[in-house]
Amino acid sequence: MVFRSRIDPITIKVMVGCSVIAGAALFLPLLMPDSTVTQALISAAVFVLSTGILYWVKVSLGYSFQEDHLLVKGGPFRYRIAYVDIKKVSETDEYISGFRMMLAKTGLEIFYRSGLWESIKISPEEEDRFLTELKKRCPALGDT
Description:
The chain is an alpha+beta fold. It has one domain (1-144). The chain is 38% helix and 26% strand. It has helices spanning 9-27, 37-60, 127-137, and strands at 2-4, 62-65, 69-74, 77-82, 86-92, 100-101, 107-112, 119-122. The strands form two sheets. Strands 1-2-3-4 form a four-stranded antiparallel beta sheet. Strands 5-7-8-6 form a four-stranded mixed beta sheet, with no helix packed on it. A hairpin with a 2-residue loop joins strand 3 (69-74) and strand 4. The longest helix has 24 residues, at 37-60. It is elongated, with a radius of gyration of 19 Å. The protein starts with a strand and ends in a 7-residue tail after the last helix.
């Protein structure tokens, strides 16, 4: 079962703004009379690579329930959290700090035993359905 990430409108505006700024920074210098084709190709490659990864994460960010773990993936990033390692789930509005795989201001923070961060912030579109499914697979959560 796969749950898509909720995306706030402000997040989309920030992503578009970053793309415009990156594009301007990379392509405006090419208007100078001494710019070369090589510089244009390098600028185009950097722009496509940087914005491509950004939008790849946006389009593919989701959370899927596997047999023995929760798979959180977005773009080239993938994280597996074993159900037996999940200790607690709580609502969060901590947008800036922590390890986040979400594109919304609010969401859920999953605390787990293994891993570098010991918690991950996510924002499934159907939060109630996601929590119900997670509790089925992690009986230790109870009525968290």
